[in-house]
Amino acid sequence: MPAVTETIDTVQSVTEGTYKWGFETDIEMEFAPKGLNEDIVRFISKKKNEPQWLLDWRLKAFAIWKKMEEPVWAAVKYPPIDYQDAYYYAAPVQKVKPKSLDEVDPELLRTYAKLGIPLKEQAILAGVEGAGETPSDAGRMPVAVDAVFDSVSVATTFKARLEKEGIIFCAISEAVQTHPELVRQYLGTVVPQGDNFYAALNSAVFTDGSFVYIPKGVRCPMELSTYFRINAKSTGQFERTLIIAEEGSTVSYLEGCTAPMRDENQLHAAVVELVALDDATIKYSTVQNWYPGDAEGRGGIYNFVTKRAHCRGRRSKVSWTQVETGSAITWKYPSCVLLGDDSVGEFYSVAITNNRQQADTGTKMIHVGKRTTSTIVSKGISAGRGQNTYRGLVRVAPTASSARNFTQCDSLLIGDQCGAHTVPYIENRCMTAKVEHEATTSRIAEDQLFYCRQRGLSEEDAVGLIVNGFCREVLKELPMEFAVEAQKLLQISLEGSVG
Amino acid sequence: MLKIEGLTAEVEGKQILKGIDLEVPAGEIHAIMGPNGSGKSTLSYVLSGREGYEITGGSVTFNGIDLLAMEPEERAAAGLFLAFQYPVELPGVGNALFLRTALNAVRKARGEPELDAMQFLKVARDRLKALHISEDMLKRGVNVGFSGGEKKRNEVLQMALLSPKLAILDETDSGLDIDALKIVADGVNALRAPGFSSLVITHYQRLLDYIVPDKVHVLMNGRIVQTGGPELAKQLEESGYASVQAAA
């Protein structure tokens, strides 16, 4: 809880209305030619030194994509995207692949340091072998980071420490080389190539992302995280993340993302696949802070993302938590297919749209196994001329006897030019299932603001405090380190929304 | 401390305050009494800077500074505190966090160092103990699910923490049982000092048995119509506002 006050202090030092992650890193880059065709797909595959099966897999995806049309059902508006007018591969030039963090380009390390992402293993920096075993800050768990810069992963920390537990945490392109059998077994089994337009595009041209494998019975000893950074101009980022939790294992994974401020729109089309086997638990948290565009809606990231989890095992559990503050447009529905009996799916979401931002986000909970349960808590905040839509599906198959779902969708409006929409679909084909849906829409009341201001809080701090209170149920699901970051973001995202 | 001269104000085009003249010297407690609709709450909101109240004339100075030119939070930082008639609920916002945020905002504006969570807790515990309020109060959401009495106690706790120079109590006694009334009165009496003033707005004389005012003003139809000592409150209790109206 002290975090909020800290937030308020921090935010006061930030210049109003600026996106502080909007800087550009000047670094020598290598690009594929602009545009998208089979040669580009082959180029990317070759760059990554991929086996034939993966190239074939990509080409199949590309063939499917060419026949597909962009979805138009979401409540978002944008001019047509010219898919030929973008780079599909951009990577910092590296003469040799760095074997350790010491060999990573210092400019990249500086970039991540500036973003507040330490690409160092605290104790390892001191040069003491084995010192990495104990967290240097008392009581503070280290976080392993995979850093993805445009199209490639530039560094992954704590790999050795994790390997001791049998955990694989690396760039997916690396996993293709080192654990091809695992990648081949699971890739595309949760989100198939032809799942949707953007997933097909991603399958054809995905460049990097994280790969996580937690062996049977292992509880991952630290938070795993990936930090995505789009830097190059006119470049799309297509990352692919695959997480496999074997029987009885547990993992908490976080992702964060930022991009420079630009007048152009840039495309980010990611695919995330999660597989949880018997008694496994995956907690997946996102703090999405792509550049949202300016106050007039110029520039910003188009965030078209497909995230899905298969709870394949009995009593398996997947929990999605997302804080969506950035992007010009957000189109994402992190979902759970609850196959195993007694499996559990959760979706906790905060989505903020300010200025001209548009978000169409929610979840799908597909109940197949017996006694499966799902919980959906969605908090949408609209300010400025922002448009915020919750779109969700709860489907209960005839096999899912005694399945249960609880959905709560709350919308908060700030000002009188924004919009909040709730589109819940419920398809129940099982007599013994119980599905509940609650929804509210409210405004920040004038008396709440005045009460806070009479106690000495500025109007913006008061809004921040009230919004943080509104989102509390979701924010408390975030790992501690991220909760602080998320609270700051909520406040910054709403700057200029009052008064 | 507080000087009001010829203050007139409107709400939604309707004139509510019709020329208030009032001076509260430092160290004094003044009561404002009046029937419903006389402008008591409007006066407290105008002094604290709530939106929707249009000032059409007159002036208010607070320790020599033009109060009406300041934002509500600036008035708070300058030492003005309003205990609300209906304290507002802030769902999901912890009371401890809210109190600390408020205290630090005010401290910062006064150039005093801010308190961290531990320092705050120590100060808060002292105040709670002095006011005989349970520590559970800190753990709950701001006023959420509070009984009427608990909400008022929370106002008094905030007042004690923020140590204002001028505390305006807007019918803080309404709906309170005698125990809660004593807590409110103790809270105000504990702050009594040469540099502290208070404006106690009330409908009934009851609260003034516990907070003995230096002066009592009767507000009717947007004007102060009578001023006297504590005995005026007792007189009103017996003969009602009608007698004053007749006299005025």
UniProtKB/TrEMBL annotation, chain A:
SUPFAM superfamilies: Stabilizer of iron transporter SufD
Gene Ontology terms: biological process: iron-sulfur cluster assembly
SUF system FeS cluster assembly SufBD N-terminal domain location: 163-220
Domain called SUF system FeS cluster assembly SufBD core: residue spans: 228-470
NCBIfam families linked to this entry: PRK11814.1 (NF008773), sufB (TIGR01980)
Family: Belongs to the iron-sulfur cluster assembly SufBD family.
Protein's recorded name: Fe-S cluster assembly protein SufB
Automatic annotation (TrEMBL), chain B:
Family under the similarity heading: Belongs to the ABC transporter superfamily. Ycf16 family.
Record-linked PANTHER family: ABC TRANSPORTER I FAMILY MEMBER 6, CHLOROPLASTIC (PTHR43204)
Gene coding for it: sufC
Name of this protein: Fe-S cluster assembly ATPase SufC
Organism phylogeny: Bacteria, Pseudomonadati, Pseudomonadota, Alphaproteobacteria, Acetobacterales
Superkingdom field: Bacteria
Gene3D superfamilies: P-loop containing nucleotide triphosphate hydrolases (3.40.50.300)
Domain ABC transporter: 2-246
KW Transferase (keyword) present: no
Keyword entries, A-Z: ATP-binding, Nucleotide-binding
Magnesium is among the record's keywords: no
Cross-referenced InterPro entries: AAA+_ATPase, ABC_transporter-like_ATP-bd, ABC_transporter-like_CS, FeS-cluster_ATPase_SufC, P-loop_NTPase
Xref: NCBIfam families: sufC
GO molecular function: ATP binding; ATP hydrolysis activity
